[in-house]
Design a protein that fits this description.
This protein has 3 domains: 71 residues, Nucleic acid-binding proteins (OB fold (Dihydrolipoamide Acetyltransferase, E2P)); 195 residues, Vaccinia Virus protein VP39 (Rossmann fold, 3-Layer(aba) Sandwich), CATH 3.40.50; 146 residues, OB fold (Dihydrolipoamide Acetyltransferase, E2P), CATH 2.40.50.1070. The longest helix is centred in the N-terminal third of the chain and has 16 residues. The protein is built from 9 helices and 22 strands.
């Protein structure tokens, strides 16, 4: 295969999370004869079983990478309703596949990735999400245009594009109320001709729309993020939102001002236009106060499956000790474990999340939870207490190697690692297993139906110090 040329082939397997391994038959000719050979290329977003057309954009060291152009033939199990934004948005890799097949595809990839570390572990399978569609409880939409100088759009970045914004009123993993709020907001600001914020020129007003909703209480929090370039009159927008026939109930409407040059959702100042600046959610019998920027799992019902799994992995271990919940977010896991522990210490680098964790622990009447704001790498040097077991729920990049070394040096007998990116887990397992931690049990929990992502929960046991 040659760089710049187009080929067609069948996807025979996948590497996590979205790399299709495509087999292509090509003809090689020399002076005396020609022969057909089978070559392979890695093509992102090509799914096992599909026949795809792609262009080779990189060839180095005998490895070929291609860019997907079209799906020429669907996979055998690809018989469901495909996403209307398929191939443009890039988020829902598996929409169109039966849900059981989605789980099987994810399971196969993760087992292949982690297999060498799990030879002695009991595999507890992959657990599906209670909801396959409309499960997301948080969306960050961006204002922009779908093409240069086009009309106002509000939605998600097109795949591979920093500029073009795709309006996603029909996105099926979003809650139905989100779709109504998005459509109304886009139409409202189109009508009054409010300019969006240009990420290169740093001019304009409209930046983001943040929407969050609790699965159990139905409470909704809406936040409009704008620059300060122009003073906006938002009374009509607020009242229009309140008049929508939503399934849930609006708990608060916020106006957040952000003049950062970076294309990120952040707050320089916050004004409450209606209600309050938080909503309430319930997980496994506990109540949680969630603000606009608090970390909270994006699939509430799936989170219950995930946290129940974590709790079950520790159920048989020694209870009543000190638990470290590292990368604790808003302290959800810490609070779920608190009734069975003497003390739980959560460490989280986001100060707002720590504040929320403290509020939630008080709300749930838990007196044995302590939450510390700071980098795990530094905070571990400051905590005087020693843990009896440790929960790790790091960000996508995994645990910093120096922090992981400090965690290993605590020499606890049991450790539970929750990973939202199995490739990072595989890297960290290299050090953990090399230092005497052997996986005992593991499973996957599908928190992100229709996409290529999946959570992995691993319980490790110390076999030597």
């Amino acid at each position: 295969m040659k760089k710049g040329q187009t080929y067609c082939g069948r996807v025979v397997e996948m590497d996590f999370p979205n790399k299709g391994i495509v087999e292509v038959e090509t003809t090689v000719a020399d002076e005396s004869k020609s022969q057909t050979v089978t070559e392979t290329a890695v093509v992102k977003n090509a799914v096992k079983g599909q026949t795809v057309r792609f262009v080779v954009n990189k060839k180095r060291g005998g490895k070929v990478e291609g860019r997907l152009l079209t799906v020429e033939q669907k996979a055998e199990h690809e018989n469901g309703k495909a996403c209307v934004y398929g191939g443009v948005c890039g988020g829902c890799l598996y929409q169109g596949f039966a849900y059981e097949e989605q789980l099987a595809l994810k399971e196969e990839q993760v087992l292949k990735l982690l297999g060498k570390y799990m030879k002695e572990a009991v595999y507890d399978g992959i657990k599906g999400s209670p909801k396959e569609l409309e499960y997301r409880n948080k969306m960050e939409f961006t204002f922009g245009d779908e093409y240069k100088d086009g009309p106002l759009s509000l939605g998600l970045h097109k795949r591979g594009s920093f500029y073009d914004i795709l309006s996603v009123e029909d996105c099926r993993i979003n809650d139905g109320d989100f779709r109504m709020i998005l459509s109304f907001t886009k139409d409202y600001f189109t009508k009054i001709k409010t300019p969006y914020f240009h990420r290169m020129q740093h001019t304009g007003v409209l930046r983001h729309l943040l929407v969050r909703k609790a699965a159990k209480t139905g409470e909704i929090l809406i936040a409009l993020v704008t620059s300060t370039e122009q003073t906006l009159e938002l009374e009509a927008w607020k009242e229009g939102l309140r008049a929508l026939k939503l399934q849930g109930t609006i708990a608060g409407i916020l106006h957040i001002l952000n003049d950062s040059l970076a294309d990120v959702v952040q707050c320089d100042r916050q004004d409450i236009l209606y209600g309050q600046d938080y909503f309430m959610e319930e997980l496994l019998g506990l109540r949680f106060r969630v603000s606009a920027f608090s970390f909270f799992q994006t699939n509430s019902l799936g989170a219950e499956v995930l946290y129940e799994t974590v709790r079950g992995y520790l159920k048989k271990e020694e209870q009543g000790g000190v638990v470290f919940d590292l990368y604790s977010g808003t302290g959800t896991i810490a609070q779920l474990l608190a009734p069975a522990a003497r003390k739980v210490i959560g460490v989280e680098i986001v100060a707002d999340a720590v504040a929320a964790a403290r509020e939630n622990a008080a709300l749930n009447g838990l007196q044995n939870c302590e939450f510390i704001a700071g980098d795990v790498l530094k905070v571990l040097d400051e905590i005087e207490e020693k843990p009896d077991y440790i929960i790790l729920d790091p960000p996508r990049d995994g645990v910093h190697p120096k922090a992981l070394r400090k965690i290993i040096n605590y020499d606890v007998q049991h450790l539970v690692y929750i990973s939202c990116k199995p490739t990072s887990l595989a890297r960290d397992l290299e050090m953990l297993t090399g230092c005497g931690y052997i996986p005992q049990r593991y499973c996957m929990v599908d928190m992100f139906p229709q996409t290529g992502h999946v959570e992995t929960v691993t319980c490790l046991h110390r076999v030597n110090s």
